[in-house]
Design brief:
Number of helices: 2
Structural class: alpha+beta
Number of strands: 8
Largest sheet: 5 strands, antiparallel
Helix content: 25-40%
Distance between the termini: 90 Å
């Protein structure tokens, strides 16, 4: 192999690598939004699955309190054992801007009480419920009627969760709505 052949071979190889690299870069630039949207939807799907599981397992608090603490269109507080310890935690899911947030408060003291600040974590981001005017939570009574009086926590038997997800509302694909539901299993008279 001569020196000129080696130079030609290196030049052809370099041009091929540059062409491949440019193709990959343009592909990722063109599809970055779609990949981000897919990640946001997957995050919301995982979050809504975990939320439903915890709602289904709602139970009386460690202090004997009724399983449902409070209800609102964009917030739901209830008691559930989320970490398999001897105590039942107070769990709150709420919409905070474009973040769907989970707060967990463990009981403490003697007698046990739910006081202090909850440990919070973001379950899902890029949630557009507020911008779209869509409630995150819809509550139903034992007859299947929608509960609109949010002071009637003891009437709740079924909860529907809707999350509207979109990384960038000004670009396609448009909003994707994820919906799931949970029947509260442990509501027995004490």
């Amino acid at each position: 192999m001569t020196f000129i052949e080696a130079i030609v071979w290196v030049a052809i190889f370099t041009m091929a690598m540059v062409a491949i690299t440019e193709t990959l870069i343009s592909f990722y630039r063109a599809n970055a939004y779609t990949l981000e949207q897919g990640a946001a939807v997957e995050s919301a799907r995982a979050g809504i699955t975990a939320t439903v599981k915890e709602i289904r397992e709602a139970q009386y608090g460690s202090d004997g309190a009724y399983p449902i603490v409070s209800i609102a269109p964009d917030s739901f507080s209830f008691y559930s054992d989320v970490n398999d310890d001897p105590y039942v935690e107070e769990v709150t899911y709420t919409l905070d801007g474009t973040n769907f947030v989970r707060g967990v408060l463990s009981p403490s003291g003697d007698p046990l009480a739910y006081a202090g600040t909850a440990a919070t974590s973001t379950v899902s981001d890029n949630v557009r419920n507020a911008a779209q005017g869509v409630n995150v939570f819809t509550y139903y009574d034992k007859n299947g009627n929608v509960i609109t009086d949010y002071s009637k926590t003891t009437d709740v038997r079924y909860v529907v969760i809707d999350l509207v997800v979109n990384v960038n509302p000004s670009r396609a694909p448009h909003d994707l709505t994820l919906e799931s539901s949970a029947a509260l299993r442990n509501l027995v008279a004490r």
